[in-house]
Structures are given as C-alpha cells and as structure tokens.
Amino acid sequence: MPHSLPSSPKSAPRAGRNGITKFTNCRILRGNSLVNEDLWVDSATGKIIPSQAAFYDDLILPDDVINLGGRILSPGLIECQLNGAFGFNFSTLLEPATYAKKIREVNRQLATTGVTSYMPTITSQRSEIYKSALPHLGPSGEYQLAEDGAESVGAHVEGPFLNPTKNGIHNVDVLRQAESFEDLEDCYGADNLRNEDGYRPAAVKMITAAPELGQMTALVPELTRRGIVYSIGHSEATYEEASEAVGAGATMITHLFNAMRPLHHRNPGIFGVLGIAESLPRPWFGIIADGEHLHPTTIKIAFNAHPDGFILVTDAMHLVGLPDGTYAWTNGDCTSGIVKKGPKLILEGSDRIAGSSITLIECVNNFLNWTGASIPQALNAVTSTPAAMLGLQGVKGCLREGADADLVVFSENVNLHGRSELVIDEVWKFGTKIFSR
Amino acid sequence: MRLIIRDDAGTASSYVANYIIDRIRHFNPTPSHPFVLGLPTGSSPLGVYRILVEKYKAGLISFENVVTFNMDEYVGIPRDHPESYHSFMWKHFFSHVNVNPNNVHILNGNAPNLEAECVEYENKIKRAGGIDLFLGGIGEDGHIAFNEPGSSLASRTRVKTLAYDTILANSRFFGNDVEKVPKMALTVGVQTVLEAREVVVIILGARKSLALQRCIEQGVNHMWTLSSLQLHPHPMIVCDEDATLELQVKTVKYFKSIEKVARDQGFEQILPSSIRTGPAPAPIPKTVVDEVQSPTILAPQPMTSRLLRATPATEYPVRSVSPDLIPDRMADRVGVPDLARRLTPQPEHQQQRLASVGA
C-alpha cells in the first residue's frame, strides 16, 4: 500500500509554526452518528493526530483553532467510478505530458466538489489507450501534496471483458473475452497489473468484467492476490454465476441494477447475491443516485438489503461541470454525440443513458431526500464504505487518529420537505485547506 | 474555615468556577509570575470545569499563564487509557482551554521509579513557587486526593494503595470488573495540599454529607483526612444543600449567616494581599561581605516561616482600619506652665490658666 510507506511532507509549515490545526465546535462523523468532538490535524504529515498524546508528549498547541459553529466535519468523499470531469475524458489517447497535465487540472478541480480520493475509470477501449493512460492513473498516495487536490487511489477499468448484450454505451467492437491471465495483461499492459517490487502498487485497482464470459471467474483469485478488486458488471450472469464469482473473490458489483439482468423471482440474478443465501460474504455495490439510472425506491431497496455494502457512485462523464449542449464523444474509433441537459446525458439519436453528469454530493443529497436515511448513513456511503471496499480502512474515509486528514466541512440546510441537504463549505486535503465556498 | 452553601450542584459549581476566575484575574498572572492552580478529578469538579471552559470560550478568562498541578493518577494503566486522570483532564478541561502544555503537571503513574517521580513532583511544586489555589473534591470517606482514611496528615506526594471501598467505587469506570481497577495510585499528600496558599473544596450530594459533617463539626482526624483543612489558614468548602444533610441545623444557619453578613459588609474570602497576588518575585541576591568580627555564636533562625511560606503566621489580612491609639502624656495636652510662673503662684494667674484649658 502506498499509505503505509513513510511519505514526504505534505506541506511545509511557515517558520515558527507547527502546521497543526484544531477543529472545534463541530459534529464529526463517527460510525453511524455525528458526535461533538474536537479533531486535530497535522498539515506536515497530512494525518489526523492523537490530540492527547500531542499535548502531553510533544507539548504542542495547535497553530489554528477553527470553530466550525456546529457544522458537520466529514472525511473527504471517495468516488469509485468517474469517467472524466471538467471536460477531460480519462479514456483519451494523448501525449503523455499533455495527459499528465490534464489529470493535474482535473485533480485540482475535482477537489472543489468534495471528492478528495477517486478511481479514474476507463471504459471499454482498445488496448493502446489502456497502455498509454493507465500509467498516469495509478495511486499517487505518497507523492501527493495537499495543493494537488484529489488523489487517485488506483484506476478502475470498466471493460472491455464485458457481455456485448449489456454493453450500455460501451463500443461493442472492442469488447473481448479472457481465457487466461495473459489476455488481461495483453489488454491492460502487464506493468499496470503488477505490484512492482512490492513498492509501487499496481495502477489498476479495480476491474469490472462479466464473470460468465470466457474464464473470467477462474481469473478472479489471481486478481485479488495482486490486490485488485474484481467487480461484477455489464453482465448477463445468473444468480448461480454471480454466486460463483463471489465465491471466487468478487467483492464488488458495478452500478447495481444497471447493465445486468433485472431481479426475476425465478432467478434473482446478480442482485440475488445480496441475500445471505450461499453463506458467502456479501459484496459491496455501486449505486448511481442521479434520478435517471434508478428509481428512488429501487435505491431504497438496495440500501435496506445490505446497508454496509452500499456505495454511491456518479459514473459521471467528462461533461460534469460543463454547460448544457451537444458534445462530441470519441468512443474508441467512432465519434458520436452526447446531449447534456442538466444532469441528464443521452446518446444522440437514441434514448440510451450515456453515464451521468452529476457530482457525488448531489448523489448524497438525492439519497438523503429519497430514502430518509440519516446523514451519517449517507456520508458513510461515500466515505467509510468505499474505503473498506478498497482496503483503505483507517487511512481514508474515516476520522480516526492516523488516518489521512482529508476533510469536508458541510453546512446542513433543511429543504422544503423537511429533509436535510448538505452544502460543501470547505475542503481540506492532508490537513491543508484547499477550497472554501 | 468558610463554608459556602448553595441550593444545588449547579450553583455551587458556578460559585467555585467564578471564584477561581476572579482569583486568577485579580492575580494578573504573567509568564514570569504565573498563577499556580491545583486540580482534582472525579465527578464533583465536572461542573466547575464545564463552567471554566464556557467562560474561557466566552473570552472572560485566559489560562495562558496558569500552571496546573493535578492531585493524583493511577499506577499501571496506560496514560491514554480512557479512565486515566490524564485522559480525564484532557477530555474535560485541557483540550478546551489555552493551557500551555509546558505548564501542565500530572503525576506519571508509569514512571520507572515511582518514588523518584513523587519526590520530583514536590520539587516541581516548589520550583513553581508553591500552589496558589488548590481545588479539591472528597470521597465518601472524606479522603482528599487519594489520601484515604488513616493517611498521615503530614504526608507528602507518594505511592498509595487504594482502599477496597475506593476500588469498588471506581470499578464502575472499568466495566464493573474489580480486577481491572488499578490498585495503586500516586497522590499528593495531605501536607502538600495544606501548603497551598488557599484550598477550595467542592462537596456535592447526599452521599458526601457524613464526610462533610465530620470535617466541619468534629475535630481534626486522620480517619477523615479532609478535616485537616481546619489547620489551614485559608480554607473554603463549597457545597450544595444535599451535602449538608448530616450537619446540625445550627451549623448550616451559622455559616449561612456569616456569609450573609460578610456579603453585606462587602467582603468575601479574606486573603492577605500577598496571597491574592502571589509571592513577590525573588529579590536579586546581594553579595554580603561578612565582617571580620562576626559573632562566634550564630543566632538560631526560625525555620518554620520559610518552610511554611504558604501559611505565614506573622501576616494578617488587612481589614478596614479604625484610628489607632497613640499614647501621649497628659502634660502634653494641658501644656507645661512656665517655670517662673509656677515658682510664683498667684491665684489670679491660676484662675486664668484653668479657664484657658477649658477645664
């Protein structure tokens, strides 16, 4: 893991200062409740520090005491499926220097939406795009500085080992099947799947693939051995096939209900693995709460089926953050148009949903609004739950001592229906404020 | 001894907190002249800490130049254990105010040499110039700090084995498992508390009423260590009505009337000005050259005044002054007749003289 390594200073405090900030008079997210506690962060190490030990051992007083006036202090949001943002599509073939520059720009802007860690997602593409883009998308943990903004926790490759009948808007022509691990290496590039010398983690952190195609299910144990999450998605899998994949080590379902067979009473399909039937551990699952992909009640059912596995994702396209209109979209070889109207994205000349252009905090507010979930439940779906899915408990998505000091300050507004709505006031990365409203 | 009685725990705590704040502000502490505050843990002072924190947050008091010494700490539990007194102080007080960590002193129950830790603690108190105000609470058996019944009233900071009653009482903080409760503690001694220039004790609730009765209405007794407060020149006990249940009605009324009269007269706790403002900074030592013919027998100097600097017997509070008697001779008032006149007494002159004196 990058985070267990000694890391470079995240920022240099000014002379005569220790870089420690104390948040007080705030409600902080702890498990399923918001508690009134102080939080101490160190901008030099970028971590949340044990305040009592700092006081008694290091005889430290914070440089700054920030009174949040009762507002909510949450871990930074974690996004598991983001195809691009602010006009840049991660699935693009570009000169390495230009690509790296674009990524830095996206990272900085993405942080202003409250997302401090994310998985840049590449849709089904020809091999060359994976090989050129993935080296830029790997986890940047230890090299990341506060002012860099959002950090990648590893790339998510959604395809191309998908079922052509559940392709969504993925280009059917590039879809393929894997018979051996060499097929995966051939597609993504062997280096991108390898935890080189145990030092730098693999660029790819998650693979979405259909388990019923080729030998995919048999390849899952090798992926998990390499620390890569295998996620079931874009699949025609039956309940039995999905269960087999979970038994082999699948721990995630990509955008549950979308691009898979619906729940049928004679065969519950992929959704069925959320029942505790085969005494298998239940996987985590992504949910797109944008008002287009899923009916609010469907979201509620999924949440109640397995609250601890519930992860909100946006599946947003690079058009998020841009004005309405028709945008050209290069999908592999063919170019088509995507019509953006508010948060809606439709493939031009069809009624197919082409991803979303919603931000993660809008998904959180939708979820709060539709289901009456508590604020901690909604925030866990974008903080501690995805962190657990990625094996980053205690590092990301929580406010425990020793965790990264990625924070979001929320105001809580109550809307006309008496439901809470969260507004991002401030974003902190590694103990340094990088955005305020 | 002053006994301040308030209707309930809240107003009693508020009285103590305001008293401390008033003392600190009047003291006007500076980095070179800090206010030294002794602090307790336990349930009784919780309300006091809460109000002190509120007042700090309201900007009414600063603890920047306050040095603190805590009374006690368990032996053998990790410092950051949730039930350690380090954690208690952090949670209820230090994390909320601007006390400088360099000014905070709590006994280290994990010190490699506990005896040395205790000796050093006493030295630290001395180096800080002694404690200006020791705030305390008591146990049901009248113990102050961990000086349980039978503790020497001359005791100093030391390792103490806890009484079984105290272990039982504390087991509620350790999952009701007596085995998990530490059996030893480090604590300041009775004498350490008595050497503070002022001692304020808060006693709340009916459970403490017997202890209060023993300490107020009965004599000094090592079985109720708080009763040693009777030997202190400036002690104050603040309690709620519940804690007075065992006191005689007469006692309660007496102390209430004293407080009322004193308040009507416009003064509260009477403290010598040197205690109100702390000891003067040490004078710059002068080099003294002994005369050659110094006396061969040195006059013995009394030690007590230096050792008991906190309890100066020679100093009295300044009250409002009534004119002092200045003895003079009657002759100065009547005047002395001229020698010549006295030698030639004449009745007329004498008559005149008497008239002018105005007999």
UniProtKB/TrEMBL annotation, chain A:
<keyword id="KW-0119">Carbohydrate metabolism</keyword>
<dbReference type="GO" id="GO:0008448">
    <property type="term" value="F:N-acetylglucosamine-6-phosphate deacetylase activity"/>
</dbReference>
<feature type="binding site">
    <location>
        <position position="158"/>
    </location>
    <ligand>
        <name>Zn(2+)</name>
    </ligand>
</feature>
<feature type="binding site">
    <location>
        <begin position="353"/>
        <end position="355"/>
    </location>
    <ligand>
        <name>substrate</name>
    </ligand>
</feature>
<feature type="binding site">
    <location>
        <begin position="258"/>
        <end position="259"/>
    </location>
    <ligand>
        <name>substrate</name>
    </ligand>
</feature>
<feature type="binding site">
    <location>
        <position position="255"/>
    </location>
    <ligand>
        <name>Zn(2+)</name>
    </ligand>
</feature>
<feature type="binding site">
    <location>
        <position position="169"/>
    </location>
    <ligand>
        <name>substrate</name>
    </ligand>
</feature>
<dbReference type="InterPro" id="IPR003764">
    <property type="entry name" value="GlcNAc_6-P_deAcase"/>
</dbReference>
<dbReference type="GO" id="GO:0046872">
    <property type="term" value="F:metal ion binding"/>
</dbReference>
<comment type="similarity">
    <text>Belongs to the metallo-dependent hydrolases superfamily. NagA family.</text>
</comment>
<dbReference type="GO" id="GO:0006046">
    <property type="term" value="P:N-acetylglucosamine catabolic process"/>
</dbReference>
<dbReference type="InterPro" id="IPR011059">
    <property type="entry name" value="Metal-dep_hydrolase_composite"/>
</dbReference>
<feature type="domain" description="Amidohydrolase-related">
    <location>
        <begin position="72"/>
        <end position="411"/>
    </location>
</feature>
<protein>
    <recommendedName>
        <fullName>N-acetylglucosamine-6-phosphate deacetylase</fullName>
        <ecNumber>3.5.1.25</ecNumber>
    </recommendedName>
</protein>
<feature type="active site" description="Proton donor/acceptor">
    <location>
        <position position="315"/>
    </location>
</feature>
<feature type="binding site">
    <location>
        <position position="266"/>
    </location>
    <ligand>
        <name>substrate</name>
    </ligand>
</feature>
<keyword id="KW-0378">Hydrolase</keyword>
<dbReference type="InterPro" id="IPR006680">
    <property type="entry name" value="Amidohydro-rel"/>
</dbReference>
<dbReference type="Pfam" id="PF01979">
    <property type="entry name" value="Amidohydro_1"/>
</dbReference>
<keyword id="KW-0479">Metal-binding</keyword>
<feature type="binding site">
    <location>
        <position position="293"/>
    </location>
    <ligand>
        <name>substrate</name>
    </ligand>
</feature>
<feature type="binding site">
    <location>
        <position position="234"/>
    </location>
    <ligand>
        <name>Zn(2+)</name>
    </ligand>
</feature>
From TrEMBL, chain B:
<dbReference type="GO" id="GO:0004342">
    <property type="term" value="F:glucosamine-6-phosphate deaminase activity"/>
</dbReference>
<dbReference type="GO" id="GO:0006046">
    <property type="term" value="P:N-acetylglucosamine catabolic process"/>
</dbReference>
<dbReference type="GO" id="GO:0005829">
    <property type="term" value="C:cytosol"/>
</dbReference>
<protein>
    <recommendedName>
        <fullName>Glucosamine-6-phosphate isomerase</fullName>
        <ecNumber>3.5.99.6</ecNumber>
    </recommendedName>
</protein>
<dbReference type="GO" id="GO:0019262">
    <property type="term" value="P:N-acetylneuraminate catabolic process"/>
</dbReference>
<dbReference type="GO" id="GO:0006043">
    <property type="term" value="P:glucosamine catabolic process"/>
</dbReference>
<feature type="domain" description="Glucosamine/galactosamine-6-phosphate isomerase">
    <location>
        <begin position="12"/>
        <end position="222"/>
    </location>
</feature>
<comment type="function">
    <text>Catalyzes the reversible conversion of alpha-D-glucosamine 6-phosphate (GlcN-6P) into beta-D-fructose 6-phosphate (Fru-6P) and ammonium ion, a regulatory reaction step in de novo uridine diphosphate-N-acetyl-alpha-D-glucosamine (UDP-GlcNAc) biosynthesis via hexosamine pathway.</text>
</comment>
<dbReference type="GO" id="GO:0042802">
    <property type="term" value="F:identical protein binding"/>
</dbReference>
<dbReference type="GO" id="GO:0005975">
    <property type="term" value="P:carbohydrate metabolic process"/>
</dbReference>
<dbReference type="InterPro" id="IPR006148">
    <property type="entry name" value="Glc/Gal-6P_isomerase"/>
</dbReference>
<keyword id="KW-0119">Carbohydrate metabolism</keyword>
<dbReference type="InterPro" id="IPR018321">
    <property type="entry name" value="Glucosamine6P_isomerase_CS"/>
</dbReference>
<dbReference type="InterPro" id="IPR037171">
    <property type="entry name" value="NagB/RpiA_transferase-like"/>
</dbReference>
<dbReference type="InterPro" id="IPR004547">
    <property type="entry name" value="Glucosamine6P_isomerase"/>
</dbReference>
<keyword id="KW-0378">Hydrolase</keyword>
<comment type="similarity">
    <text>Belongs to the glucosamine/galactosamine-6-phosphate isomerase family.</text>
</comment>
<dbReference type="Pfam" id="PF01182">
    <property type="entry name" value="Glucosamine_iso"/>
</dbReference>
